[in-house]
Design brief:
This protein has 247 residues and is mostly helical. Helices cover 74% and strands 5% of the residues. A 4-stranded mixed β-sheet has the order 2-1-4-3. Helix 1 (5-29) runs antiparallel to helix 3 and helix 2 (33-87) runs antiparallel to helix 3 (94-174).
Length: 247
């Protein structure tokens, strides 16, 4: 294949722009914020599950406390009634009086037991509510960080899109006038060789695979017409001769 030497040099500019676009696309596909976002989302999910479990626990303890409060008040009300009967002399029968006195003692013990249970529930409820408040605070912190990191990622992606648009426009200008067969060859090699289809021959070395050419290979390239498209013997990429090739 033959192509004007200037067109071959122009192909190096296209390669540089394509490489720049590859880097931009790679950064856009996996911006550095993604790793932190993934960790934050995972952390938030766990916190949300923990908070949900604590909310159930707090709700259960609140109901338990309400029942304990009601039980205490119920027994206290019964004790008040019994004492009123005792104080007013409403019970005259000695056996009934003795039974009432025993019941008051039992009610006092029952109230003490219920109040101990009530206090235990209150303490557990207070601890669970405190833990829930702390989790909600951590959730708020994670949400705030998620917003900050997401905004930073979106700004980065917007900048990358702008760079990609500018670079694409520059590339469109650089490919103008290039021979179609040369551009097609370059595109095919670029797809096969990890994004690099053309490389400069500088200081006796291929810029694509970094192979240093021996004297015989250099002499063979030097003997070729300037418009002949040369390929690297090692990597097969288009090898563009430059003023610094060392020929």
């Amino acid at each position: 294949m033959r192509a004007d030497p200037f067109a071959q040099l122009q192909l190096l500019d296209v390669q540089e722009l394509d490489s720049r676009l590859d880097v931009i696309r790679a950064h856009a596909a996996n911006p550095p914020e993604n790793a932190e976002l993934a960790e934050l989302i995972e952390s938030r999910g766990q916190l949300d599950r923990d908070a949900g479990a604590l909310e159930v626990q707090v709700s259960d303890l609140a109901r338990e406390q309400s029942k304990a409060d009601a039980d205490v008040e119920h027994v206290k009300a019964r004790r008040v009634r019994d004492r009123q009967r005792l104080d007013t002399g409403a019970v005259g029968n000695p056996k009934d009086l003795e039974r009432l006195q025993h019941e008051l003692v039992a009610l006092d013990k029952r109230i003490n037991d219920l109040e101990d249970a009530e206090l235990d529930v209150m303490e557990r409820l207070e601890t669970a509510q405190k833990d829930l408040d702390q989790l909600r605070s951590r959730l708020a912190d994670v949400d705030a960080r998620l917003t900050t990191v997401t905004e930073a990622r979106d700004r980065r992606l917007a900048e990358l899109r702008e760079k990609a648009e500018t670079t694409t426009q520059d590339r469109a200008k650089r490919v103008e006038g290039l021979p179609e067969d040369l551009l097609a060859l370059y595109t095919r090699i670029r797809e096969q060789k990890g994004g690099v289809g053309a490389a400069a021959l500088r200081a006796r070395r291929c810029g694509g695979c970094s192979l240093e050419l021996n004297s015989a290979d250099l002499a063979g390239i030097a003997a070729k017409p300037a418009d002949e498209v040369v390929r690297c013997e090692e990597c097969g990429r288009i090898l563009v001769r430059t003023a610094e090739s060392g020929l």
